Amino acid sequence: MIKYTDMTAQQRKAEYSAVLADYEKQKALGLKLNMARGKPGKEQLDMVTDLCNILVKPEDFICDGIDSRNYGNVDGLPAAKELFADILGCKPEQCFVGGNASLQLMYDVIAKAYTNGLLHSDKPWSKLEKVKWLCPAPGYDRHFKVTASFGMELITVPMTAYGPDMDMVEALIKDPAVKGMWNVPKYSNPEGVVYSDETIRRIASMKPAAPDFMLMWDNAYCIHEFEGAFVPFADILSLCAENGNADMVYEFASTSKVTFPGAGVGVMATSEKNLAYLVPLINIQTIGFDKINQLRHVKYLQNKEHTLALMRRHAAILRPKFHAVLDALDREIAPLGIGSWRRPVGGYFVSYDAMPGTAKRALALCKEAGVTMTGAGATFPYGVDPRDSNIRIAPTLPPVEELEQAIAIFCNCVKLAALEKLGV
Amino acid sequence: MIKYTDMTAQQRKAEYSAVLADYEKQKALGLKLNMARGKPGKEQLDMVTDLCNILVKPEDFICDGIDSRNYGNVDGLPAAKELFADILGCKPEQCFVGGNASLQLMYDVIAKAYTNGLLHSDKPWSKLEKVKWLCPAPGYDRHFKVTASFGMELITVPMTAYGPDMDMVEALIKDPAVKGMWNVPKYSNPEGVVYSDETIRRIASMKPAAPDFMLMWDNAYCIHEFEGAFVPFADILSLCAENGNADMVYEFASTSKVTFPGAGVGVMATSEKNLAYLVPLINIQTIGFDKINQLRHVKYLQNKEHTLALMRRHAAILRPKFHAVLDALDREIAPLGIGSWRRPVGGYFVSYDAMPGTAKRALALCKEAGVTMTGAGATFPYGVDPRDSNIRIAPTLPPVEELEQAIAIFCNCVKLAALEKLGV
Question: Full-prediction pTM beyond 0.90?
Answer without folding.
Answer: yes
